Amino acid sequence: MGEQKIEKAGTKKKVGKSVLLGAAFLMATSSIGPGFLTQTTVFTQQLAASFGFVILISLLLDVFAQVNVWRIIAVSGLRGQEIANKVLPGLGVILAILIVMGGLAFNIGNVAGAGLGLNAMLGIDPITGAIISAAFAIFIFVVKEAGKAMDKVAQIAGFVMIILMVYVAFTTSPPVGEAVINTFAPSEISIFAIVTLVGGTVGGYITFAGGHRLLDAGVKGVESLPDVTKSSVTGIAVTGIMRIALFLAVLGVVSQGLAIDPANPPASVFKLAAGEVGYRMFGVIMWAAAITSVVGAAYTSVSFIRSFHPMIEKYHNWVIIVFILISTITFALVGRPVNILLLVGALNALILPLALGTMLVGAYKKDIVGDYKHPIWLTITGGLVVVIMGVLGIMTLIEQIPLLFK
Q1: Looking at the predicted structure, is the pLDDT value of residue 399 above 80?
Q2: What is the structure's pLDDT at 8?
Q3: Is residue 21 situated within a structural domain?
Q4: Structural domain boundaries enclosing 43
Q5: pLDDT tens digits, one per residue of 255-288
Q6: Of these four, 144, 170, 185, 382, which has the most CB atoms within 10 Å of its CB?
Q7: pLDDT at site 264
Q8: What molecular function does GO assign, one term (predicted)?
């Protein structure tokens, strides 16, 4: 009898680690989408070795934002929209609408990226590739243990992307010494690049992806905080490794004076680095990045409306499937609606300060967190992210709105 108890306890611990790693990789792979690959390549072209500084600052802001959000979700045992509704009635609904809009619009881009990935990998038509990819994503939510399947796909895809990206970084022989020096003493600083990276890594639905996954897996309460913090930092670390590896790969190509094709910058880098094999590798990375972003965006967006009606809660996996279908059908019929993506992209930049600011207020309300005392250093650093992203998000929105009427 005693041996059985020991065995069960060991099993529980193992499952716990798997869930924590799954949540970290869900968040990381949700942020590593087609946009991530393009942004990193373009900014490295523009800033060269100084882009290392942008990565460093954005990673610090990412950690401050994410640790705050995940801890408050875990302590309260509530999803983001439920905390927001307790802070101010109706705020959770507004937050949910913004996140679902952003998630749906960007998922059209993710589905398109998956199609392009299969095109580069196997030569399949992009629309056909997008439909095949959507079918794969839907299958994850049809299986009985959808949560475990999602965790496993995110982890495998994440490891494959890291291995291939690091390999390509080595093949381009980048000037690592120069990159290290410029990371701490940059010759050029781009505020726009920092905002874009932070928004792309922890903006919109992405901040909540892993936190909501942990909650669904039953990881909550003050006693779980060390694990929650470790999982959230692991997620940012994975995105950091990917970002640094791609940065070095592009820097190696740029430092050799090779011309990158502006029509598809990341694909061009892989082709220049490793020829036709490199281009096929890009297809694998692009597909893995896109398909995990499709899954992460759909899962997290729907998690924001689950608590609004018992039927959504009961059939949430089917709602996720409908979400993926709408994204795929939109891409197949009308392509990527550029104007909508521009507007929602600007709105997405505002979701982070609104969401994080709401979480920080919630951290000091007893009816949300009970007797829990939120660390003052986390409040200060989180508040800093709210102000920086709020001001720059509004500036971006003002710039983007006129473009809709051209």
Answers
A1: no
A2: 38
A3: no
A4: 27-362+373-404
A5: 888 888 887 888 888 898 888 898 999 999 999 9
A6: 382
A7: 83
A8: cadmium ion transmembrane transporter activity
